[in-house]
Design goal:
By secondary structure, the protein is mostly helical. It has helices spanning 8-15, 18-23, 33-67, 74-102, 104-124, 128-156, 162-186, 189-207, 214-219, 223-234, 241-254, 261-270, 272-289, 293-298, 300-306, 313-334, 340-368, 378-406, 412-464. Residues 33-469 form the Major facilitator superfamily (MFS) profile domain.
């Protein structure tokens, strides 16, 4: 009997076997729906944490290798740092198709095993070409994880908590970067790589308990499993019938129950309303990355050295990592209380102002041929910390929240893959050009350029971006 013809609870009693309850810790009766969704988001967020370690590892490893007289050229340093994002340019669109075909649980299990192997490669060798191959593979892993960390929270969460859940994924990525900076204080790169490999093992156990999103199950035509997933995510005391009917109606309306990824891709580009939403999403990610956050992430230690700070650059990196992670928790309290556009434009204004102050300071100070005093050396730390705080509170989590709220649910995996490819292009441009632009116009000039881009982003958000909180800005009425 179809679940839609009976009450949700009676359907579950017939279809939900005891082994499923044992295999899913979210089915414990005393856990509220909010925490059920948080638990699942955190488990999938382990993939985002792994992406954070991939991105932040060059910040500590390259400087440690340089201190150990292991010299790499500027081009080699740039490619080691930026290769994962360059690979993601090609692989992100493919990753969306893979996640849509295999599902989240199987994808996370496979790529986590592969990632463990790459960390062992990095730990065992200092040959540049071996390191580069490992970073290429890590780029493939990051591509899949980036799709999962954005799509899964948006599909398993209820509307009133969607921004918080996507913020949790962003926080996990920042936590990965923070732990990398912290580990870089006491561990050499090879030991740090071994540590990352060891941490991946318990993650594989956690992935066993994941439930696929109800919307993905509906798209795959697995109607019996939809009820099981919803009961796990919402709890026994929640009437899931309205949500069950809503999910099925969306899938039936778009006639994509058994559609292939190529057909979903055609649908995304065929309808102008979807194409407009996709274009706005691309522009959001463009201005997000033109703030220079990726350069700050992968060149943190080097950046403080170039800025002439008198403080230990490794400790400065830890401060930056904390300033990047902790505000994500604050964003959870703000993201559902204030309009998305207000938070995003405000945080972009703060990042632009802090980078402008830092850029002008470095420009003037470098031209004065004077040494930084003990207090003036704090200026780079303060300005970059303010930048990082503003990014963590608003720009990072809110940008991805708006993107997922703009994208139609039935093409979300494919659309997110395309957006991640664009996102990777933007990050690759920032990562690859930073060292060479510094040579050309100086580190102060680079920060001034990033500040101008941030202010352009404010203008875009205020004038072009629709408000998405609790709304569906691009509803298909055809």
């Amino acid at each position: 009997m179809s679940p839609t013809r009976t009450s949700a609870n009676s359907t579950v009693k017939r279809q939900l076997p005891s082994k499923t309850i044992r295999s899913c810790f979210c089915c414990w009766p005393k856990i509220s729906p909010f925490f059920r969704q948080v638990i699942m988001t955190i488990v999938t967020g382990m993939g985002a944490l792994a992406v954070g370690t991939i991105y932040a590892f060059p910040a500590v490893a390259l400087t440690r290798w340089e201190d150990a007289d292991l010299k790499f050229s500027t081009a080699q340093i740039t490619w080691f740092a930026s290769t994962p994002m360059v690979v993601s340019v090609v692989m992100s669109a493919v990753a969306g198709v893979v996640v849509e075909r295999l599902g989240v649980r199987l994808c996370l299990t496979i790529i986590t095993c592969v990632l463990c192997f790459t960390w062992v490669m990095i730990a065992q060798s200092t040959d540049f070409w071996v390191l580069l191959v490992a970073r290429v593979i890590q780029g493939v892993v990051a591509s899949v994880n980036l799709v999962v960390m954005v799509v899964y929270p948006a599909e398993v969460s209820q509307v009133q908590w969607r921004g918080i859940m996507i913020g949790v994924s962003e926080a996990m990525l920042m936590l990965g970067a923070f732990l990398t900076y912290l580990g870089g204080l006491i561990l050499l790169p090879n030991l740090l790589a071994y540590t990352f490999a060891a941490v991946l093992v318990p993650q594989l156990i956690l992935f066993f308990f994941l439930r696929e999103s109800p919307q993905w199950l509906a798209r795959r035509g697995r109607e019996d499993d939809i009820v099981e997933s919803l009961m796990c995510l919402r709890g026994n005391g929640v009437d899931i019938k309205p949500e069950l009917e809503h999910i099925k109606s969306i899938v039936c309306t778009e006639n994509v129950q058994n559609s292939k990824s190529a057909e979903q891709l055609t649908l995304l580009f065929r309808k102008p309303v979807y194409l407009r939403a996709l274009t706005l999403c691309v522009l959001i990610l463009l201005f997000k990355e033109l703030t220079g956050q990726y350069a700050v992430l992968i060149y943190t230690v080097k950046m403080f050295q170039m800025a002439g700070s008198t403080l230990d650059p490794y400790w400065c990196a830890v401060v930056m990592g904390a300033a990047r992670f902790l505000p994500c928790c604050l964003s959870w309290m703000l993201i559902e209380r204030f309009p998305r556009r207000l938070l995003l434009s405000t945080c972009m204004t703060v990042t632009g102002a802090s980078l402008a102050i830092l850029g002008i300071f470095l420009w003037v100070w470098s031209g004065s041929n004077k040494d930084l005093g003990p207090y003036m050396g704090l200026v780079p730390v303060v300005c970059l910390s303010i930048f990082t705080l503003a990014y963590g509170i608003g720009i990072g989590p809110i940008s991805w929240t708006i993107v997922e709220e703009l994208l139609p649910s039935h093409v979300r995996n494919i659309g997110t893959g395309i957006l991640n490819a664009c996102f990777s292009i933007f990050q690759s441009i920032v990562g690859l050009t930073f060292p060479f632009i510094v040579i050309g116009i100086g580190v102060g000039g680079v920060f001034i350029a990033y500040s101008l881009c941030s202010l352009c982003g404010v203008i875009f958000v205020v004038t072009c971006l629709p408000e998405t909180q609790g709304q569906t800005p691009f509803r298909d009425t055809n």
